[in-house]
């Protein structure tokens, strides 16, 4: 386990180094058939660097990347490694040095994992250099110090709730009852939202269409930090198949009590 934790953290520092080295060149936009909304030279360079990094670690794994798709680095994989090169690319493109953007990495102990197979995960927010990581059964950490969720149970105007407006799209109306009873925000990066819940920066997050790219990492961080994570019907994600290309309707909260209070408003 410690070996995989070092690899996970090492990959995030590698991504951080790549983006720092690129500087403003990294925000140059890329246009090709692989782009679904926005992609940059930074995304592409991080993807290539992490594929090379994980290959050099000689882990018997299959890799999944938002920029590069599925990459097989061994014939008989025992693990799955999923990463989002840059989550919050538009923040990076428009507000490098100001707005948050992250790299997220998840390592599963199965080539065809469920969410409960998440073994190690980590998220790096690149402007601050803060790194969250978790190991199954070993707790959640921010820059090497153990952290937990805020522990907030009550839903009131002091509860800091994230609603992902980009993912909500036409479903945004279902969240209208939450605005008067909480303090709603959106920082434009799901990885940052989920990591923030694990360390008490935010109290909850609702996303009707959460990409798997960041969810594997956020799942383990929040679970190990003592938080609550479920679909929008209140069902656990533990036995749900992890599909890198899928989207999941989710709620994440500091406590089950706060999560249930939010679900009652939907």
Features:
five-stranded mixed sheet, 7 helices, alpha+beta, single chain, 2 domains, eight-stranded mixed sheet, 266 residues, D-Maltodextrin-Binding Protein, domain 2, 13 strands, Fructose-1,6-Bisphosphatase, Chain A, domain 1, globular, 29% helix
What is the compact description of this entry?
The chain is built from 7 helices and 13 strands. By secondary structure, it is of the alpha+beta class.
Low-confidence stretches: none
CATH homologous superfamily (4th level) name of the largest domain: Fructose-1,6-Bisphosphatase, subunit A, domain 1
Output the CATH class name of the largest domain: Alpha Beta
Kindly report the oligomeric state of this protein. single chain
How many structurally independent domains?
2
Distance between the termini: 39 Å
Shape: globular
As laid out across the biggest beta sheet, the strand order is 2-1-3-4-5-6-7-8
Radius of gyration: 17 Å
Q: Report the strand count.
A: 13
Structural class by sheet pairing and helices: alpha+beta
Q: Helices and strands, in N-to-C order?
A: HHEEEHEEEEEEHEHEHEEH
Number of contiguous helices: 7
Strand coverage percent: 25-35%
> Considering DSSP H and I runs of 4 or more, what fraction of the residues is helical?
25-40%
CATH architecture level-2 label of the largest domain? 2-Layer Sandwich
CATH topology of the largest domain: Fructose-1,6-Bisphosphatase, Chain A, domain 1
- The mean pLDDT is 94
Main sheet specs:
8 strands, mixed
